[in-house]
Design goal:
Largest sheet: 9 strands, mixed
Number of strands: 21
Shape: elongated
Helix content: 25-40%
Distance between the termini: 42 Å
Radius of gyration: 25 Å
Amino acid sequence: MSPRTTGVAAAAAPRTPPTVVLHGASVVDSPLLTDGSVDAVAVQVAPGRAGDDALQPRSGTPQAAARYGIDLSELAERAGLTGAAGEAFTVHLPLPVGSSVELPWAGLPPRIVLVGVGDESPTALRRAGAALARATRGLRRVAATVGAQTHHDDAGAAQAARAVTEGYLLAAYSHPRITATPDTKAAAELVLLGRDGAAVAAAVETARTGAEATWLVRDLANTPSHVKDPAWMADRARRLATKAGLDVQVLGPRELAAGGFGGILAVGSGSASTPRLVRVSYTPTGGGGRHVVVVGKGITYDTGGLSIKPREAMVPMKTDMAGSAVALATVLAAARAQVPHRVTAVLPLAENHVGAASYRPGDVVTIHGGTTVEIANTDAEGRLVLADALAWADATLDPDVLVDVATLTGAATLGLGRQHAALYGTDDALVAALTAAGDRTGELVWHMPLVADYEEAVRSSVADLRHVPEDRRIGGGSITAALFLRRFVGERTWAHLDIAGTGRSTSDKHEITEGATGYGARLLLEYLSTLD
């Protein structure tokens, strides 16, 4: 066992989001508001209509105003709210002075949170849920009308409840901290007022499954690399998969050498922490369906190797294994959701370090299956471990669909920023399905071209391939990386998600949290859930 597998960080059970419960009663007649269990009531406001600048109260807000005896619209305007999605303002209600004074809100929750819901689209409601989570952190229980509308049919109510729940649970996440005293300011339990029924309950459960997957990705990626090495990550995957009843295979250094995994071994050669390859497989009851294999880049720390990174660029590199965490979280969530397709996660794990045995620019490594690759930059290590894993998946797993996820290139971030992942693919239907799944979940993608004229960028005079372009004038670094990876997928239906920009954030924004964002798990789970 690796020395890094000891201690609190290794032993801790996966953290889970706060509870969300449905409550059919409204803000008018709910007994929860008078039994002392609720710390705040959250109500919704929307922007004014054309020709009318006044904030628009939404379902539940007038009723809350009547029950509390307060003009909430006037309070919202006084607070400067516009009703935009993501706004939140908390009204702290005063206590009476003297026993003879009775205020209209006596016995009711002492806080009212005014939440902007914008145009009430899924994106807007996701942002509203996120704002509510941040505004109420540290409370015990919050009862909310946010997202509830009297005009909703069952499908509309379910979609709205899912969006609010997703935003709330995703923004409720907090970084795991290694401190002497635990952080006790957890997110509150959320009660969705005025909502019940099977459709809404199923939608909330779907939101929770996706949020739990995202929390797992965030926790794994945010774990410091003095704890998280390839052996630790492999052990974590094995424990989680075994608990879920899934099939697990772990290849260590001997098996990797015997199997010809030259890319993974080369990248890990400079580290005292030896590499691993992990396979986790879910098979639905009765089998059937399609077989989707998700390969995730798993560089548990990236110094750049001999092509060493600047100090500032190394700081976030504990998250360079986010792709492998997405792959693992996806297969675990697929099992929980009982999707009707086989799903396999493949995690190539290595630490790209500097050592006496480090691989060098100019070396030639042999990828699983025999393809040789000329090394030109040891800081382009991700595509090497992915090449091994993709070639192995193609040769041994017989996937119907092969998807890889990786924090791969700075070029993707430069080109698309931090709101869209770069999506490449060999099949139009797969690209369209992933794009649609991204739109529904808010994990957006941008379809990028596999430019045929750039094929020369991966040609080598001394090996079968060169893993980075020799001619810098070609540019298109994310494109050339995808062209390199395509050489290892055979004739499979394949997609590549470069999440270098979306996988990390420098600050909290809406449902995104600072550090590892967990991007990709909900997108892939949505894709699997709607796959024919």
